User: Fold this.
Amino acid sequence: MSAARQPSPPSPVAKGDAPAKKPRTPRARKAASAAPASAAAPAHRVRPAPPLHADERARLLEGRHHDPHAVLGARVLRGGVAVRTLRPHATSVTVIAKGLRTGLHHEGDGLFSGLLPLTEVPDYRLLVAYDGHESEVHDPYRFLPALGDLDLHLITEGRHEELWTALGARPMEHQGVAGTRFTVWAPNAQGVRVTGDFSYWDPAAHPMRSLGSSGVWELFLPGIGEGALYKFDITRPDGSHTVRADPMARRTEVPPATASVVTSSTYAWQDAEWMAGRGKLPPHQAPFSVYEVHLASWRPGLGYRELAEQLPAYVKGLGFTHVELMPVAEHPFGGSWGYQVTGFYAPTSRMGSPDDFRFLVDSLHRAGIGVIVDWVPAHFPRDEWALAEFDGRPLYEHPDPRRSAHPDWGTLEFDYGRTEVRNFLVANAVYWAQEFHVDGIRVDAVASMLYLDYSRNEGEWAPNEQGGRENWDAVRFLQEMNATVYRRCPGVVTIAEESTAWDGVTRPTDSGGLGFGLKWNMGWMHDTLRYVGKEPVHRKYHHHDMTFGMVYAYSENYVLPISHDEVVHGKGALVSKMPGDWWQQRACHRAYLGFMWAHPGKQLLFMGQEFAQGAEWSEAHGPDWWLVDPAYSAAGDHRGVQELVADLNRTYLDAPSLWERDSVPDGFAWVASDASDDNVFAFLRYAADGSPLLAVSNFSPVVRHDYRIGVPDGPRAWREVLNTDDERYGGSGIRHARPLPALPEPSHGRAASLRLTLPPLATVWLRP
Assistant:
């Protein structure tokens, strides 16, 4: 329950304290019986502590005090030990220590104090009485800072690569007492207070202390632990207040509630074998086919643990090597699909706890499937309880509106030039890799980060120092992120969704590149989909759309993406992009997948496209699973495509020629790139040992008999290893059942050739 909806009872007590009937709790009675009667000082004998200066009192009560520990807690003064505590709504406060039990004077406004007749500060507790309840608690203001100097130094330098261990809410034992350390970065704040269900959302009780020039505020609250809800009450520079969720929260309430949740992991991983073996091959030299999933709608209503029972088996059955999860970080609006993040360190609570998400990743690993997560460091939403003007001024966003306001999505862009912001994001990438064992981080909307004029008109953007359009702050951030992830997280790959011709996206950072492992090939996707969207009779005029990708295929390490973006907002599902009747649409769908899986680059396919769903995807209901239900009369049409995808992946895994040399020219050779009148494409793929695979695609709805294709000299016969026209997939069944002899008849510049029968709207793979 968020602060806005939390009731305020008349007599609050601390979470975890044990309210009891009057006059006191059993713990309090035990403490009282342990103290000798002669040592108990009655309240009227305790002198008042020296009063607070009016200005200091006002700053404390108004949440503007930078060091509440200087006025609250206990300290030795001339004449005794002064104890002061802030307990709003309390009727009395009693100090309890060995040989001591004495009440404090009420100063008004929830302040209680007294000057105890002692020479040193005892190990004391407070017995706080409300209307009908008493609670015995530790005084939060008797504790030293629970954040060390090294942490503060690294935060200030922007080099704290495990930032989540220093900021946020961390259950811990401090000075022998269990509780939670709360820390938050708010350098512009006059004061910060932590509030939560443990104080019935009254912010006054728990002011935090400033830890100097770091901009970090800290408070250790004893007795607060797992499951507590909290936020930060921040006093802005103008004196107004704003209540914010924790930017570093590792768990949140289920939206639309917005409170942060104290949490710690107890999960015991079982994927040691997977973790030890991943990354033995660089991803661009390894098999890498990806099934993209929106978890919340893949099987609507399932949580992480239920998904763990179904998703690994399904993906393994289809033969994909990886899943890519659309953003799982917490986001307030489900319709954003997770791309407008408010909780960068918290897996969305819609489907369970962070440990439940760990269980899902673990289950996928134990099934032999890698996990990629979408990550969104390009922007964040403007929700008033989240990051926007977090402490009253632009903090996470750039102070110049021309650099901060994202014109496409109504969001805010990060200030990549600010040390602490860059640290927040770099550590976040490391966090997902280390804490959740993810194997890949796909960075969303990289192009919008790289260019200052992205989606902006003249006059709406400010050039860089050299007068150009490049955002060099973003470039340096991406380089640092990639370098840090690869150094700290062996076997993890970073992937850029970058839609421009920016040079060196997958070039190493020490060579001036951005340092990504792979890049989405958006140009290939747009070109090839434009081709297959044409009627076959017109395709010869767009033949270059299918071949142009090879002009630049080795400029980067590419992924060929048929992602969620291509099957929403009126674009139509993949099969519905194809012209013709239902048979032709399915046939062209299958032929396109066969061409895609054979083409240089890794493959990515969005859920639902593996069984030729005809409707656009909607996050409200997910894939149309009823299409493959045996009770549906046309289920065979869709199950056939599903079976093809499984065979594509299995054949792909067994053919190193399709993945070993993806990123070098020696791994590919055109055989027929200019057969535009026939709508035919033929090319060879080569493994590291030189073994070839021949892929031939016929994007015409006619059978082409006795079609000559040149092949390398040497192999005496070639066998068909995959044919998208197979009857099992819903095709016409035109196949080469027997091996084809390599004839000593030159063709396409090669000494030998095959005579093929090309099925209509089909792709055929052959190997020696």
